[in-house]
Amino acid sequence: MTSDHRSERVRPATRDAGASAAPDTRLPTTVLSGFLGAGKTTLVNQLLRSAGSARTAIIVNDMSEINIDADLVRSGAAGLSATDETLVELTNGCICCTLREDLLQEVHRLAVLGRFDRLLIESTGISEPLPVAATFEYCDETFASLADVARLDAMVTVVDAVNLTADYDDRALLRDRGQVRDDTDERTIVELLVDQIEFADIIVLNKITTAGAERTAAARRIIRALNPDARLIETDHGAVVPGQILDTGLFSAARARSHPLWFKELNGAADHVPETEEYGISSFCYRARAPFDWQRVRHVLGGGAPCLFDGVLRAKGHFWIAEHPSSVMTFSLAGRLNEIAVGGRWWAAMPRSDWPADGEARARILRHWSADVGDRRQELVFIGTQAMNRDAICAALDRCIAAPAPKARPVAREHLVR
């Protein structure tokens, strides 16, 4: 770590294959996400003060009717002027849902003006980055696609080193803190944090001096357990070198989907092992073909086995049960929050006439095919610290395997939740 408390691990800035050698004139766009109080606005002001002669447009999103963050950007000595910088406020809603159309129109308008060298989008603290990124591929009746005139340069998530460990271990809903998109918003704090961290190309771990070495190390482990690929910058007061954040070319939609460590483990990627070991993180995938007994696996995955998941930071996967063999069951764990749900149907339970016609898609199905059970399988990824007990977890799951006979009693589909 350098004396100014910034450290960085950089993965190569690769662009999508097949990109043209001609200059890309589309407006490069950086999206900033991060939970409330992480320091997004401070980072925006730091970037603007260091922008030099670059002409920057800024879109600031706030859930309230009064855009406090926009006012802070204006008053943050950023030097906004009518000629070189433009600030657009999107208020009283969230750009990942209710204001998505507004975001699309504003980005398009700023891009076609041709006056700006870059665009910064500061999302509201409860915004998920994936829908914002998807906006760039959206087509409507007015123009073919936002991607024709603007390009995503990087998805950046700002993380509060002081509060991440406590928030990650919290079962509270966003509404418990008075922060919801609408009356139907039932998301938890940890679900939002996971979404913001897993989808990032760059993660700014902020407030590290206030957090201290121990909390910073714990936050770093959580980040690397969720996203081992992201460029990690550790700092105070949002102090970064602009080149670490801007004009990096790091965003790739395909690569963004594969950032999460659980995805890598589930798909057999091994190149993440050295880096995760450096941060004290390990991962494994439990695999089996025989079905689980519903009552037993619900007890184990639902938290009924005391201390079994000590040290587990993230778990995700799918499984099948003897009582309802057509259903894909899904499992997700982050912090102390775990969820079991019905995720769809196995292809083995579908007539071949309903299978995808695409040859590559069919090949993917058949890669996991077994003559006995079709594509049904248990695949559960666990990611954790050195305190995670792989042997105990595997043994507990082995005990959930259903006996081959007698035939298990069916369970109604609507009862397949905790």
Automatic annotation (TrEMBL):
The superkingdom of the source organism is Bacteria
The CobW C-terminal domain extends over: 281-401
| SMART domains membership | CobW_C
This molecule's function is given as:
Zinc chaperone that directly transfers zinc cofactor to target proteins, thereby activating them. Zinc is transferred from the CXCC motif in the GTPase domain to the zinc binding site in target proteins in a process requiring GTP hydrolysis.
Q: Name one Pfam family in it.
A: CobW_C
Catalytic activity field: GTP + H2O = GDP + phosphate + H(+)
Segments of skewed composition (Basic and acidic residues): 1-14
Family statement: Belongs to the SIMIBI class G3E GTPase family. ZNG1 subfamily.
Please list where the region (Disordered) is annotated.
1-25
| Species per Swiss-Prot/TrEMBL record | Roseivivax isoporae LMG 25204
Q: Which InterPro entries match?
A: CobW-likC_sf (IPR036627), CobW-like_C (IPR011629), CobW/HypB/UreG_nucleotide-bd (IPR003495), P-loop_NTPase (IPR027417), Zn_Chap_cDPG_Synth (IPR051927)
- State the UniProt keywords alphabetically: Chaperone, Hydrolase, Nucleotide-binding
Q: Does the keyword ATP-binding apply?
A: no
Kindly provide the name given to this protein in its UniProt entry.
Cobalamin synthesis protein CobW
Q: Name one GO molecular function term.
A: hydrolase activity
Keyword check for Repressor = no
